[in-house]
Design brief:
36% of the residues lie in helices and 21% in strands. The chain is α/β, with parallel strands linked by helices.
Amino acid sequence: MITIKNKIEDNYFLPDDSKEAKVRLLDFMAIPEETFISCFGFTLQEAYDVILDLDSKGVKQSLLLDYSQGCGPSARPKIKNLIQKCSNTKVVLTAAGPKSNRPTSAFFHIKGMVKIPSDKRKAPFCMEGSTNVTISGFSQTNTMRFFANKVWSDKFVEQHLEVREWALKFLPHYQPSILADNSDAVDYFFDNLEYFNSDLLI
């Protein structure tokens, strides 16, 4: 638990603010700074386009996504394309992680992002939702907030890295980037995944 004081933030209440929230999200994602994304549902094509564009410019990005949702029909081809085309972006699929009492069977349910400014005098840029980064997320009753805060971002990145390293160590069979050394192997990995019996997000 952390306590944050004097934090100014912009809060969007969906679906009333859906159009503005989506524009704000994509503008936030386009900031060319080191990026950490932790997300349960991540299927919005425009978000993948931004990641690919930043990757082509050499921006380091780390995506930590829920495995059950990543196996769904909407996310699967987009994640595969990302892995095959990116050279500066790490994509890791995970479950709840080491601090959960159900580390491999519970969801990785967070929805948030952090941008680390190259100017260390500035507070990192942060986004947190109840909103998944999906097409349907912006049609639901959800919230999305944007702010800048070092305390929050430090804790977010700490959790992101902890779960990412755990997933790489204990869930290597979830990781196409580990099992595959070429595009054919990545294709094989995704084409042979079994679908989960969870609600798959669009």
